Amino acid sequence: MDMVKANFTVTEFVFLGLSSQPEMQLILFIMFLFFYLLTVAGNVIIITVIQIEPRLQTPMYFFLTNLSFLDICYISTNVPQMLSNMVGKKKTIPFSSCATQMYFSLSFGMIECVLLGVMAYDRYVAICHPLHYTVIMNRSTCVQLAAISWCSSFLSSMVINVLTLSLPYCGPNVLNHFFCEVPSILRLACTDTSFTEMVVFIFSIIIVFIPFLLIVVSYARILLSLLRMQSASGRHKALSTCASHLTVVALFYGTAIFVYMRPQSKSSRAGGKIIAVFYTVITPMFNPLIYSLRNQDVKGALRKAIAKQRTQALLMRH
């Protein structure tokens, strides 16, 4: 019990945030509030459109619904705290709240990695094995794959969090970040963090790199299949369904791998904060825009829903 108390000498952390200039804080507050509201609204629209449109009741859109719900959870874990710090005089977070934020933020980030891998596999089955698609990707399989994505990530995050929080934190308590993230917390530990960093790296390989390899292999097989495809229209349709997913993968993985799969000693703290903005704020915001603007089915369903609302509004007036 005494050892546990010794580990938790630090009772709160102080955020430096993205900027210390008051005028810049206001600009950032307005900008990130807009990003947050746009992200939540965009993903809610995507989920609603998929649920009300019968044509979108397919495995691909089942996983897209999961991704949209995940993005709402992910951005809500970090941005409200950041907005509060920007306008409040006290830019602190209690140790327990920091631990909770770190756990869920890491969990949701890991879920996105695994889910993007699952979505790549779904596209591979749809394009390379179209006749067996409904048999392979049946409802039960989709639910199981989604459940594995969520459960494995929550458990992995738990292991990393327990190891990180078991280290002694006796000061300093200033976080050069805008939210509690494992790499930034480890820098404040009062002991050697080599073992914990190694564990984080191993889990990064399992949760981040293995799904990434699945994405690469899936799209390599898809590319070979497209090259053998005789129909130009069929090739174009297949490419259009993959383009949105590939754009999201490039945005999310490009930044997440940069932060979590390199040694802490080589990481730039200022650069890390900017990169973190991309995978915690920018990617969740762009996901609904990418899937709605580049996906003909979603655009068609969205136009149909808007037209239906307009018709109902006109009928109510008369």
Radius of gyration: 22 Å
Our measurement of the CA-to-CA distance between the termini, rounded to an integer number of angstroms, reads: 72 Å
- List unreliable stretches of 5+ residues: 1-6
What's the helix-strand series? Answer: HEHHEHHHEHHHHH
Note the beta-strand portion: under 5%
Tell me the major beta sheet: 3 strands, mixed
Number of strands: 3
| Secondary-structure class | mainly alpha
State the helical fraction: over 70%
- How many helices in DSSP terms? 11
Question: Mean of the pLDDT scores?
Answer: 84
The strand line-up of the biggest sheet is 2-1-3
State the shape: globular
Q: What is the gist of this entry?
A:
This protein is mainly alpha-helical and 318 residues long.
